[in-house]
Design goal:
This protein starts with a strand and ends in a 27-residue tail after the last helix. The strands form two sheets. An eight-stranded parallel barrel has the order 1-2-3-4-7-8-9-13, surrounded by seven helices. A two-stranded antiparallel ribbon has the order 5-6. It has helices spanning about 30-45, 60-65, 90-100, 115-120, 130-145, 180-190, 200-220, 235-250, 255-265, 270-275, 310-325, 335-345, 345-350, and strands at about 5-10, 50, 75-80, 105-110, 150-155, 160-165, 175-180, 195-200, 225-235, 285-290, 290, 305-310, 325-330. The protein is α/β, with parallel strands linked by helices.
Amino acid sequence: MSVVLHWFLPTAGDSRTVVPFGPNGHSRPATLDYLSQVAHAADDLGFTAVLTPTGTWCEDAWLVTASLLRETERLKFLVAFRPNSISPTLAAQKAATFQRISGGRLLLNIVTGGESAEQRRFGDWLDHDERYDRTDEFLTVLRGALSGEPIDFEGRYYRVEQATVNQAPDPQPELYFGGASDVAELVAAKHVDVYLTWGEPPAMVAPRLARIRQLAADHGRTLRFGIRLHVISRDTSAEAWAETDRFLDQLDPAVVTQAQSAMAKSQSVGQQRMQSLHGGSREELVVSPNLWAGIGLVRGGAGTALVGSHEEIADRIEEYHALGFDEFVFSGHPHLEEAYWFGEGVMPILRRRGLLPESVPRPGRPTAVLSRYAPTAAR
């Protein structure tokens, strides 16, 4: 089976460092113009979709992606949203509308949420396990309403009568979902199409995949697996690792300490697993061949990056694919240039190895160009 490659839409802004906004004037606000350039690049390079995050720290995923539909041709949008901020019937209606007006280019990423402070901003005071219990009910109603057949449901968190949409979307948008806790795994096994993990070392993540396969089988289901990683891919390994040195050189120790303190309060089991890879230390950040945990010193969520030559990155993708991962959600700093490094360097290797279908020529629009932020092409 071929791998499916996705990119990331930096709706909180972009920079040349791993901190949200870098020094020396390199910050890039999340303007529609800039996000359009990233989307154009992903579309032209052959990524299947772009993941758009959710939270008060970034722009709204539904609005941004809808505004980019006319800017792209075949690119899909993996829209992240939280069940605590929208009813499942309204989510179904939004998804059905998006799917129709986009010609079937919507994917849904359901984010239960692991940060209590962020949850409370939306009036959500449930504890960790209760949030996943609510997500279980939410997905039951969402799936039912999207089917086009009215659904009645009464649970602890939702009570609906004849929940449905005006017209069932065709195709049905696939559901993506992540969560490392026991209760999260049960929700994934029961409901979703693609179970997402952050970029843990192969030996660390393999038992989780085996466990979720069995949980899904217990429900008479199978699902696919996806992994979320940053990437630094260059013509040579030395060039790629030099980028990690540059990133570390620009990290203020006080910023690292502050970020680690904040992340230590997280209820997210996945976040705890990310922090266990480095413990807040700059030492021993290479946690597996070509897997660097330095991103997680200052960023929550996905905290690891594949680092190396284009061939080495392709090797690691092939290794994760053999483990069971079919879908990969990548990002880079900055996202525009790194998309080209990856698209022009790694994708051809994956195609030669039979892991990626041949690219399809793009009629109607010239090949995307790098932005004004990057006058020299990434080659």
